[in-house]
Amino acid sequence: MFLAETRPTGRIPLAIRIIGKRGVAGAVVIGLIAVAYLVGLPMLDAALRGPGADAGRISTTGGISVLPPDGWAYEPSSEAFQVFTQAGATLIVSPAVPASGTLEDAVDPTRQQLEADAQSQWVVSDPQTFSTTAGDPAILLAAQNGTDSQLLWVVRHGDLQITVVMTAPNVSLETVFTSAQALVESVRFRPVS
To answer: What UniProt keywords apply to this chain's record, in alphabetical order (predicted)?
Structure first.
């Protein structure tokens, strides 16, 4: 086996050029600098940046995004609808559609349908208004019978609105309501291109 011919090239080693020392001490200094660049700087960046505002946010082509709280399983069933489940509850987020009338007008057909269902004997609450974390106006209509609950949220942003429907057994409503409300309050509308 032949070794490559070695001869002086006239170049000064990097360690000597940077710190002016030969041997192990120079190599250690260069190693520490490399570790700082490879490990320290990314750690510092992550610490200063913190978690992203959109970490965990789920978006659709329908012009909205939501941030589901812990415990909700996301079931991508279509490009338009977002479906989440937890403790027997199913929550469906619709795509954005043109809005018309008031928020009360948006929930009124569902309210009338539930009140007219004599067989299921729904007890329908008065609609409750609130605002999302983005400042968009919203409304909640809730109904319960002996075994089940149905909740309808409508969130409006300018001339667009979405509906969120949740069905749940009454035994799990108390467990899932707060996190379902948080999911609805996390709704953000985004431009559709």
So the answer is: Membrane, Transmembrane, Transmembrane helix
Report the alpha-carbon distance of residue 127 to residue 105 in Å, rounded: 11
**Both tokens assigned to 119:** 């067989």
Cα 159 to its chain centre, rounded Å, is 23
Q: Can you count the helices (H) and strands (E) in the chain?
A: 5, 12
Diameter of the chain by CA atoms?
Answer: 99
Backbone torsions φ then ψ of 164, nearest 5 degrees: -125, 125
* Token pair belonging to 42: 């990314």
Q: Which of 132, 107, 106 is nearest to 189 (CA)?
A: 132
Please give the model's pTM, rounded to 2 decimal places.
0.69
Distance CA 180, CA 185 (A): 9
For 172-182, write each residue's pLDDT tens digit.
999 999 999 99
Number of domains in the chain: 2
pLDDT value at 156 more than 80? yes
